[in-house]
Structures are given as structure tokens and as C-alpha cells.
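We examine the record.
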Amino acid sequence: MLRAGIVGLPNVGKSTLFNALTRTRKAEAANYPFCTIEPNVGVVVVPDARLEPLAKIAKSEKIIPATIEFVDIAGLVKGASQGEGLGNKFLQHIREVDAIVEVVRCFEDKDIVHVAGQLDPIADIETIKTELVLSDLETTTRAKDKLEKLARGGDKEAKASLAVADKLLEHLNAGQRALSLPLSPEEAVAARRLFLLTMKPMLFACNVAESDLSASDASPHVQAVRKYAETHVGTEAVVVSAAIEAELGDLPDEEAREYLSHLGVSDSGVSNLIRAAYHLLGLRTYLTAGEKEARAWTIHAGDTAPQAAGVIHSDFEKGFIKAETVSYEALVAAGSMAAAREKGLLRQEGKEYVVQDGDVMLFKFNV
């Protein structure tokens, strides 16, 4: 299962957000740096409003949603790349995740200490970027030394990788994330072998106060983070109030929805964040429905029908014949699988078909 790591400076609300994401109290939340030392790991359900209507159509006994893992990683401070705070331990934990969710403090609270002494979301982002870039510079420099030795020995692959390392070093030395360096497909393969921290896809979570949630679009802090996310990383910034979400975790779903409505928002920030992280990881969902269960299955963007079938069982992929497929929207509009078939909405897809998010599928196979 792919993992999204929650990172940020101390006291920005990471552990509180993790508790809300996982609806647990596994991550201690307190007002002092390095409260989280060992990373907490939680399996998180991916909210999917399509499952309940699908279950009604198929008269399914139960619903099984998709899941991903979130990891709550210790707060980083300036100088982490040189061992400050938890230093290398923190950086190693980031190295082990597949994508980064950076929590950015966008709330004022004199009772919660800010490690820099004042609220400045962009400065906070730049602090973390600098430490990750410095770590990547060290990693790439060490790799270059090894590649030079291999290249002198006539290793063609090492020569090609050495050229990529030189490109990366120039880019990193300019203070840029590796992710923003244009690379050919072949160069990208070589770059991925370095497991650079700034090569990981990322998004930002703007942690706002309860009083700012309904009008977060007007917040200058949120606006600044969104602009930075778009112009510097090519990603998105999701607004969430970790404190509110932690409270919602204690409420039944219906009461939680009523509470959010009372606050003037239509959906949970945590739900939006989970969905954004799921897509950031390159994951997509197809659906199946029968009497026993309606289920969301996780695949990678670009997976073909046989690969999707293999997620259920390897035999389905080996003996794949075809996939009866209908989009979720078309199925709901038709009202039943039989009606969808009668209206010609049910397609017979073969081995080359690239599965789309929201496809409802029934596989035919022979083993």
C-alpha cells in the first residue's frame, strides 16, 4: 500500500490532523517541538460517495471502500539536514513515503508556540524546502562520486546517470526542488534511483482556525499558500481545520455533517485532503457490485483491464478474457445493470482498455 507522509514544522497541527484522518488517538498532540518522534502509521478510508448508491442498485450486503496509508512524521526545524532537532531520523522517515502532505500553519494562536516566533506560512514552507534540498544535495553528491568511478571504467549506464546527477546538482544548488527539473523519461528513471526527498509528489494542507474555515478563500495566508503551490510546485493546497476535524471524529456521520453545515462548509476538509492525496499518489478507483458487497478497488492511473482484474486475484489477470464495463454515472442513470445492458451502455472491453476512475466492472476470465 502506498503511503503519504504528513510533514511540517513543529506545532502546525500535524498530529492533530493525523488523529482526524485516522479517527484515532494514536498520535500524541501537545504544545512543544518533537512531540512526535517515531512516525505513526494509519490506514485511512478514501471517502467515495458513489458506493452507497451503487450498493442500493446491487442490493449489496456491505460496502468496502478503498484505503491508503498516512504517516505522521516528526516536526522538522531549520538545520535538520545538519542534524538539528531529529535531523537525519526525520529525513529518513520522509524517504520511506511515496508522497508528501505538508501541513502549513495558517492560524493565529498566542497560546500555541510558533518555532520561528511569528506566523509566516511561506517562510515555513521555504524552511522545509531548504532542509530537504540540502539533504538531496548531499545524497546526489555522494551518488555522483560513485558514478564517476563507474563511468571511468566504461559503464555506459553510469555515464548517462552521471549526466543526470550533474543536472540535478545544478538545479538543487539553485535552491529548487528536484521535482521541478524537466527530465526526459530516461533521465527520470535515473533520477528516481537516487530516492531524492524533493522528487516526491507533494501537496499542501492549510491548517486554519475554526473561525476562518467558512471564509478560508479570503484568508491572505491561504491565498499565499495556494499561489505558492501553483507557481513553485505545480500542485494544490487543501484547506482543513485540524482542530475541528479532530472533534468531528468523535461524532456520528450525520451529526458531523450537521456540524459542518452549521459552520458554513459543505464537506469535510479531511475528506478533501484524503481524496487529493489518493490522486497525488497516482491512484484511481474502479468499482464492483454484487449481492455480497459493493467495493472500491485501487489501481494506478493508466492500468489496463487485466491489471485491474489482477488486483482482485492474480488468476483474473492471467486468464483475462474481457471486462463488462459501464461508467458509474451511466449505471446510476439507467437504474440497474440489466437496464444499462438493454440500453447498450454496457461495453465489452479487452486487454488494451485503460480503466477509468469510476468504471463499474465485471471480469470474465478462464484459468
